[in-house]
Model the fold of this input.
Amino acid sequence: MALQTPARLLIIDDEPGFAHGLAQLLRRDGYRVETVGNGQAALAELQRQRYDVILCDVLMPELNGPDFYAILLRQHADLGHRVIFLTGDTLGEESRAFLEKCGQPWLHKPCHAAEVRSAIQQVLRAGER
Done:
């Protein structure tokens, strides 16, 4: 019986406390987790390493979630369906419109551990098809 390698997750969030806490939770669940502070750093990280799930904040400095996602689709189209968006801005018209249009799962911050786990499993299952 072959051993299954733990899924690799990339967290993109400019709030260090949130990113650290989420990373700790997911590492305890057995995932291999890396964190970066913005979309630009995430694109650089994706040149070095492949990830099974990308958890991405919507509003960040330097390169926000929507702009990161647009570049991701151009450079790594196969990863587009592996993104889960995180946002504290559900009232902003631009953020809401983006989340509805992109069709990817998203969670409102702060999010419950069960919601994060469920979204990750949803993306991992979709990637197996």
